[in-house]
Structure formats: structure tokens, C-alpha cells
From TrEMBL:
Residues 55-118 form the Cupin type-2 domain. PANTHER family: CUPIN DOMAIN PROTEIN (AFU_ORTHOLOGUE AFUA_3G13620). Transmembrane segments: none annotated. It comes from the Bacteria. This is Cupin domain-containing protein. The lineage of its organism: Bacteria, Pseudomonadati, Bacteroidota, Flavobacteriia, Flavobacteriales. Residues 1-28 form the signal peptide. SUPFAM superfamilies: RmlC-like cupins.
Length: 137
């Protein structure tokens, strides 16, 4: 009985992790983008958590308009990106540059270089909400 209960708990945990990864990962894999989730922790603000991920873009790949249930802080690790935040002019960032995206603000990212581009994305988001919401066209 104990083994069966442990198996069920393990399956539930795996299902929860899969739900956390699936929306962003599935979309990313379709467009030449890979995501490596680095850490996820509750923070001192009730109902919020922080999630950190490395996102790698193959040359000329892009991720369309989307938003998050909280703030996103971006640090460009390598390459050259064009970010478009809804209602603002596009911005070009290179390795070492940073960007802040406010909660719920639609935005997109595109690797505009000829090689790989990578970013470190840190999210401060509401718990139990999808990390990524694609904008309907």
C-alpha cells in the first residue's frame, strides 16, 4: 500500500512539473527556442513566487506576443535580441544588457543575430497561474 501511495504521489508531482513546463516548452520547441528551468521558489510576498530560466534562441528564431502574471527581468547572456513591448518602439539588446517587463504587458522576443542568442529570465509572478499566456491574434 505504501509503495502504491508513493507511486501516486510521484505521478502527481510529475504531472505538476509537466504542467509548469508544457506551455512555454511546447511553444519554444516549435520555434527553435529551448528553455532550461533553473529554479523556482516562494518569496516573502504572499501568493507570489520567483522562477528563473535560461532561454536559448537559434539564429533568427522568435517567440511571439505573450505576457506573464507578474514582472519579468531579462539579462542577455549572449547574442542580439529585438524585444517588442506592446505600445513601445522595438528595442535591441546585446550581451550584458537588461530589460524590465511589467506585469501583464504583452511582449515578444526575436534573435536578430546570425548565431545563438541566450537570455536569463527571472519572473516574479502570482502562484498557481500559467507562467505564459499567448496573445490571441
Amino acid at each position: 500500500m505504501r509503495t502504491y501511495k508513493n507511486l501516486l504521489l510521484g505521478a502527481a508531482a510529475l504531472a505538476g512539473l509537466t504542467a509548469f513546463l508544457t506551455p512555454a516548452t511546447a511553444s519554444a520547441q516549435q520555434s527553435g527556442i529551448s528553455r532550461t528551468n533553473l529554479q523556482r521558489h516562494d518569496i516573502s510576498v504572499s501568493g507570489y513566487e520567483t522562477i528563473q530560466a535560461r532561454i536559448d534562441f537559434q539564429a533568427h528564431s522568435a517567440f511571439g506576443m505573450h505576457n506573464h502574471p507578474g514582472e519579468e527581468l531579462i539579462y542577455v547572456l549572449e547574442g542580439t535580441f529585438e524585444y517588442q513591448i506592446e505600445g513601445e518602439k522595438p528595442i535591441i539588446l546585446k550581451a550584458g544588457d537588461v530589460l524590465f517587463i511589467p506585469k501583464g504587458k504583452n511582449h515578444s522576443a526575436k534573435n536578430v543575430g546570425n548565431g545563438k542568442a541566450s537570455e536569463l529570465a527571472t519572473y516574479i509572478v502570482e502562484k498557481n497561474k500559467p507562467l505564459l499566456v499567448l496573445k490571441n491574434k
